[in-house]
Amino acid sequence: MASNGAAAGAARKKLNGYVGFANLPNQVHRKSVRKGFTFTCMVVGESGLGKSTLINTLFNTRLYARKEVPPPHAERPKTVAIESISADIEENGVRLKLTVVDTPGFGDFINNDDSWKPIVDNIESRFDAYLEQENRVNRAKLLDNRVHACIYFIQPTGHSLRPIDIEFMRRLHQKVNLIPVIAKSDTLTDDEILSFKQRVLNDIAHHRIEIFHAPVYDNEDEETIAENEEIIRKIPFAVVGSDQEIDTADGRRVRGRAYPWGVIEVDNEAHCDFVKLRQMLIRSHMEELKEHTHDALYEKYRSEKLVAMGVTQDQSVFKEVNPAAKMAEDRALHEAKLAKMENEMKLVFQQKVAEKEAKLKQSEEELYARHREMRDALEKQRMELEDKKRRLESGRPLTPEKQNQSYQQATKKKGGFLRN
Ligand code: GDP
Question: What pLDDT is stored for residue 115 in this prediction?
């Protein structure tokens, strides 16, 4: 009898006739089509960089309604919000449940130091939800809401990455497949795009940030390998988004943006890298993105979390660590949490006191202003009375009209003053 280990060295045998397992890929294909696919993509970048437009352009659907531009003095939210939109889309009988996680508010504040935090929390809570399902007794159908790709929109400044970009990528690169794109690249010339891309790549390498690269496998055909290498060369993709169709000078109808000097075509590789981004994200590497999320990113998170919970792995056997040490560690964690909460409360208190002080100062200034106003009005009234007195004393009686006029002025001022 063959031992279990014999499989590794299994000899190649020739078949004497058709057996049928060559049909396995078709079986997998049919099953996947029946089940449908899911994909969750996050978009991050300051408002107005074209995130919703690009998502609509990528999936060729109005996933996002046209956004209302808020009036200039409208109250803005004070934190980064996380919003997700899902849609069931279908192409040639293949169904895809697409979820887009938007992060409005990112980078929009005066102080953006912690803009990355709600985003990391959101990604981790999705990992936690998956881990919780895996730990259930019945785990027949796992719902995968993990973020499979994060498109990070870089402002088309033409300089280099800003501190907020670096901070965000550093915090996120080991939790999500990062896909940096240069937003609104139609605002830069070809040369500017080339040098900007190089600087962005240098910054990414300098800060040891890992971004998603389409993997190149040796056993694939030459054409696929060449395509993948071409995709890699375009990173960070310089994109242009538009869900409008426009007529070109040569009579074609294209998705693009019209300028006095011509039309920038979204789907034209000579104009921007939109096609390459779509190729990687949807047409060739969606499954790779999901696999890397599961096998590398989630796996890292899961094992770190289990280790933090006191579970260690010893040659594939899980065993509990010393309970006393575990309790001490738990207590330390709890105390650290309490200290953090206390700190946060202190900060909130200080902020509230500062706000109250500012309000009091403003009321004080208003009172002073009112006081000055009243004093000036009284002074004016006093001068007028003095003047009247002088006239009376000098024996020049006022004419009846003058008397009436000055009486009316005095009562008007008094009344006005009292009303105030
Ligand atoms: P979001 O706030 O990041 O979702 O940005 P929107 O998608 O709402 O776009 C903001 C504005 O930029 C809109 O007026 C879009 O028409 C415009 N826009 C979107 N994509 C591009 C682009 O690639 N180039 C240029 N020049 N403008 C764009």
Answer: 85
Indicate the top mutation candidate among 41, 46, 53 to test ligand 1's pocket, ranked by most ligand atoms within 8 A of CB: 53
What is this model's ipTM? 0.97
How many domains in the chain? Answer: 2
Is residue 170 within 8 Å of 180, Cβ to Cβ?
no
List, in sequence order, every beta strand (DSSP E) within 123-265.
Answer: 149-154, 178-182, 237-238, 245-247, 253-259, 262-265
Stated pTM of the model: 0.70
The alpha helices in 135-246, defined as continuous H runs, are: 163-172, 190-206, 222-234
Residue 3 lies in a domain: no
Q: Which domain holds residue 340?
A: 335-419
pLDDT at 411: 64
Between the CA of 50 and the centroid of ligand 1 the distance, in Å, is 3
Q: Is the CB of 133 under 6 A from ligand 1?
A: no
- Using CB atoms within 10 A of its CB, is residue 98 exposed (0-12), middle (13-18) or buried (19+)? buried
| Residue 130 CA to ligand 1 centre (angstroms) | 34
Query: Looking at the domain assignment, is residue 209 inside a domain?
Result: yes
Residue 239 pLDDT:
95
Pair 286, 353 in one domain: no
Residues 295 and 354 in one domain: no
Q: What is the structure's pLDDT at 3?
A: 45
Q: Mark which of 284, 319, 354 sits at the end of a domain.
A: 319
pLDDT of residue 111: 73
- Does residue 16 lie within any of the structural domains? no
Using CA positions, which residue lies closest to atom 24 of ligand 1? 184
Please tell me if the CB atom of residue 228 comes closer than 6 angstroms to any atom of ligand 1.
no
* Residue 67 CB less than 6 A away from ligand 1: yes
Residue 66 Cα: closest atom of ligand 1 = 8
Residue 28: predicted pLDDT:
81
Residue 76, pLDDT score:
57
pLDDT score at 315 = 46
- Tally the residues of the chain: 420
52 Cβ closer than 6 Å to some ligand 1 atom: yes
Tell me, using a 6 A CB cutoff, whether residue 372 lines ligand 1. no
Please tell me whether residues 110 and 192 are part of one structural domain.
yes
Low-confidence spans in the chain with pLDDT less than 70:
1-9, 65-79, 311-323, 396-403, 405-407, 409-420
Claim to verify: residue 311 and residue 340 sit in the same structural domain: no
CA distances to 75, 139, 349 from 356, rounded to whole Å, are 20, 53, 11
CA of residue 391 to ligand 1 center, whole Å = 75
Residue nearest atom 11 of ligand 1, based on CA coordinates: 48
